[in-house]
Amino acid sequence: MDFLQTPLNWFSQNILQNPAFFVGLLVLVGYALLKKKPHDVFAGFIKATVGYMILNVASGGLVTTFRPILAALNYKFQIDAAVIDPYFGLAAANGKIAEEFPDFVSAATTALLIGFGVNILLVALRKVTKVRTLFITGHIMVQQAATISLMVLFLIPALRNQFGTAAIGIICGIYWAVSSNMTVEPTQRLTGGGGFAIGHQQQFAIWFVDKIAPKLGKKEENLDNLKLPSFLNIFHDTVVASATLMLVFFGVILFILGPEIMANPEVITSGTPYNPAKQAFFMYVIQTAFTFSVYLFILMQGVRMFVAELTNAFQGISSKLLPGSFPAVDVAASYGFGSSNAVLSGFAFGLIGQLITIVLLIVFKSPILIITGFVPVFFDNAAIAVYADKRGGWKAAAILSFISGVLQVALGAVCVGLLELSGGYHGNIDFEVPWLPFALAFKYLGIAGYVLVCLFLLAIPQLQFAKAKDKEAYYRGEAQAE
């Protein structure tokens, strides 16, 4: 088996864990299967890969800009807490596995490959499984495989053996396939038949939002149609709205922290510390806030570039290799199809929900304190607002993103305690609902709980299919009347 292990490891490290090239490879294969001219195949590969790289630059920039503020908050208020952020969660999970289960240090990487294979198999057997989506967001798969590995190994002692890695891979693959499959109809509705699904950290939340949002408001009263005083119409411009919102939120925080802390290189170990010799502090605050808006704008451009190529190319993969399947991509791909203000509204209301819940943890002297992380508060809640606004207008967007923020903090604290983590937890909404109940099933039912979770997940697409009035339309991913 060693002759297989080497190429598989190379593919995992160089392609599967590098989503830009993974997406580029899918476009290359798709265009080749469509028998496009070689120069068109090459051009599509470049545009898809570069587009995803642009997305990565923007996402990384957003995180990098926020982390110094997070570190400063931790220093000023002497908070010993867990950060709900998938990157912090990845480090915490890998650290705990290395410390307590050294024989399983490589379990997450191997499980990632097994899980991807399981996802392909479930799509290939779609007539039986009713699964239509291939999860292709490699960096997200790495984060999730690490967290799921810890859950299985820590909570199910009976799987700390030769079967453990396979068990992790199987449940990862089932989750990726089933959860992304749940987003097909909501995303088709949002995009007007865009031909892709979501493979990120909030698929269960997207499905729920799509169902509940119409009960909370009217889609006609969406954020684009919201009547604002004339001077507020400037906020229909994404750049103006994002820059203003970030200036309000982070301006207040930065002024509370003060120039001394933001200039301290021992505190600000990532990003660029404030340099009082070169810049006035209020200009540093404005520049930092506006930087968020810059990266958000870049993110949108990258999304448009790679989604256009991927959607076209996946027609070749769908028709030749996995007929009837959909690519499940980064949730940011959905942002260009909703209201221009939904992303910012979701961020704002989600952050408010998080901050209120953090205050309540402090007031009630919770043994575990949570620090908000940028990735969940931005990507989860922005996505929830985009989908909610499409189905239930601004009221649904505000209510559901606020509730998401509350759950991220409250249930994140429970997850940190359950897994006895230090420093961080995954934090995204799907890894609190439904993964917190899954983890509890692992803890109290052991292997039986693991089996029940797998069966529960596999039953979801069966129920989706059974509910569909037009069975052929289900396979085509068409949103049906409810």
Description:
- With 482 residues, the chain is mainly alpha-helical.
- It is built from 18 helices and six strands.
- The chain has helices spanning 2-16, 19-33, 38-76, 86-100, 107-124, 126-129, 138-155, 164-181, 184-191, 203-212, 238-257, 259-262, 281-320, 342-363, 374-419, 435-445, 447-467, 471-476; strands at residues 82-84, 133-135, 197-198, 326-329, 370-372, 424-425.
- Helix 2 (19-33) runs antiparallel to helix 3 (38-76), helix 2 (19-33) packs parallel to helix 13 and helix 11 packs across helix 13 (281-320).
- The model has no long low-confidence stretch (mean pLDDT 86).
Summarize the model shown.
This protein has 482 residues and is mostly helical.
Biggest sheet record: 3 strands, parallel
The number of distinct helices, counting runs of at least 4 residues, comes to: 18
Task: Write down the Rg.
Answer: 22 Å
| Stretches with pLDDT under 50, minimum 5 residues | none
Distance between the termini: 50 Å
SSE string: HHHEHHHEHHHEHHHHEHEHEHHH
What is the topology, as strand order, of the major beta sheet?
5-1-6
Structural class: mainly alpha
Instruction: Assign an overall shape.
Output: globular
DSSP strand content: under 5%
Helicity level, as a percent range? 55-70%
SS elements, strand count: 6
What's the average pLDDT?
86
